[in-house]
Amino acid sequence: MNYRIDFAVLSEQKNDCRFGLTLHNLSEQDLADWSLHFIMDRFIQPDSVSNGELHQVGSFCSLTPKQAVLPANGHYYCEFRIKTAPFRFYSDGIKEAFVQLNHAEATVRYDVAVTPIVLASPYQERSEIPQTLQAELCLIPKPNRIERLSGSYLLATTSQITLQSTQAEQAAMWLQQELKSLYEFEPQPIGNADIVYQINPILDEEHYQLTVTSHGVLLEASSHVGFVHASATLLQLVQRTQSGLIIPCVKVTDAPRFKYRGMMLDCARHFHPVERVERLINQLAHYKFNTFHWHLTDDEGWRIEIKSLPQLTNIGAWRGVDKEIGPQFSTAADQHGGYYTQEEIKRVIAFAQVRGITVIPEIDIPGHCRAAIRSLSEWLLDTEDRSEYRSIQNYNDNVLSPALPATYRFLDLVLEEVAELFPSQFIHIGADEVPDGVWINSPKCQALMDEHGYQDAKELQGHLLRYVEKKLRSLGKRMVGWEEAQHGNKVSKDTVIYSWLSEQAALDCAKQGFDVILQPGQYTYLDIVQDYAPEEPGVAWAGVTPLERAYGYEPLAEVPADHPIRKRILGMQSALWCELINDQSRMDYMLYPRLTALAEAGWTQSALRDWTDYLARLKGHLPLLDKQGIHYRAPWK
Ligand code: ACM
């Protein structure tokens, strides 16, 4: 490449760091009328930039230099400040860049190579995973009761799957598909009835029993999802030996610890194709998750087709230099985007249902709405609003106005289609990270506050969310939202709260009578870096989450097991935010093996969980990940 950026930390203090950026012109040509554009997700103090003027929208920075000509074989240099904790990882640096020639006749763009940031003080420590021997039975999550019987069952070419309950049909179909794709094994349509699905009405909904003897396999449950869990356990027991595929004889009696065991995937920051989404959902079934939370809208992209408002995806699903929504996070000089049609969404929901997984959609409001606002500005933009704010992700124009009638028309249309499309009882409405300062200089918002006697602009958030809660109730749905959903104190206790900043919000909300789901960033956010080495990819706002830390997560550990508040904990969830995740390989690397550790936190009773024991099972489990082509982070290097 003819252009290169070197970027270095010049000085760092607790919350104020200074950086130097050098752009080299390695070509034989002088550049005139040029500007530099790059991706940096922290907010650069605009008045701190030496030798140029910077305009930043989200993570997209445009720098107009004071130096009109960038000479051939010369360079440009500037410095700036970011009010941030010290950088420790290369992921913290500039991600991509291009130089633009702003000639009157045509705009020309040249890619710029970016060398890794020169860090001032990367961490020296590294997390260590003890060497361990592989367990004999490598089940994750660990079943709550498992007895090893002597001998094993040989999967024979005459083996046949027999259903004694129609409720087992889909689970059996899934088992068959997975046996084929993982072990190239195909049971016979007619043969010995030695893999039997049988209803057992004594078992509760997600409970199952699995009995393997030398003669065959018995899978017992009382529900579809119970049969899926039994199948998942069976799939992890299969071993390839010289005599063929065998299953060790066992008796498993198992049930989940938490009723809700979820995984959230952000498909807004980067669009993930349907196949990638389904691949993940399939894997979730292997680990006995029962909920897939689909983050479908955000500032940087609207990913769900709304038939009555096609602008949302015509405009809001695409970003790029010449688009309504500029580049963010990656692909600086190219277009990025995509969305799911309602037909595709129906297929994903059906795919998940076969695997015992409920899909909860998230439409994130009233913050995180930049893509929607720019797509439907004639409806959603309060043109008289002079409020000044900056969201965590550096936007000053990403919040819906509770004072515009069209906001409610927009919400009605979207929620009606969403409620129709998703069978899930829960609809997630986000509600996170509405920035301070929003709405306060809007005459319309002021009038709405006066009308209702609201003292604090936060009450406007409650006003809007109460409307949404009622709307969803009228559609037969229950509103769920991030911990900020109860800000403004207006939503009812029917709303389920997902805590994410810490566990404290969950505790406070549970005390007030809300049902809660725990998703603390410090343990369950799998976009967080997994070790201390500077090349480790990921974000670090909540620290570093090595495998051991993720494994050790125990929801509200300090609340005694018999405390009534525990009844308010519906369960827990992991999350993958995708600002930095744009392909399968990076997704796998961030998810695995930590997702398996968190699956165990949701499923297995705490008394049975043990780090060393988990590692011994993980060791024998890794070949199954290899078989699926999962690019996990190797725990043992
Ligand atoms: C969140 O991480 N903003 C819920």
UniProtKB/TrEMBL annotation:
Question: Which residue range or ranges hold the Glycoside hydrolase family 20 catalytic domain?
Answer: 258-605
Please cite one Gene Ontology biological process associated with this protein: glycosaminoglycan metabolic process
Q: What class of enzyme is it?
A: hydrolase
List the molecular function annotations (GO) for this entry. Answer: beta-N-acetylhexosaminidase activity
From the UniProt record, list the reaction(s) this protein catalyses.
Hydrolysis of terminal non-reducing N-acetyl-D-hexosamine residues in N-acetyl-beta-D-hexosaminides
Q: What are the entry keywords?
A: Glycosidase, Hydrolase
Top-rank taxon, per record: Bacteria
Which Gene Ontology CC terms are recorded?
membrane
In what residue span(s) does the Beta-hexosaminidase bacterial type N-terminal domain sit? 139-255
Residues of the active site are 433
Return the Pfam families for the record. Answer: Glyco_hydro_20 (PF00728), Glyco_hydro_20b (PF02838)
EC number(s) from the headed UniProt entry = 3.2.1.52
Q: Give yes or no: UniProt keyword Repressor.
A: no
Q: Please report which protein family the annotation says this sequence is part of.
A: Belongs to the glycosyl hydrolase 20 family.
Report the protein name in the record: beta-N-acetylhexosaminidase
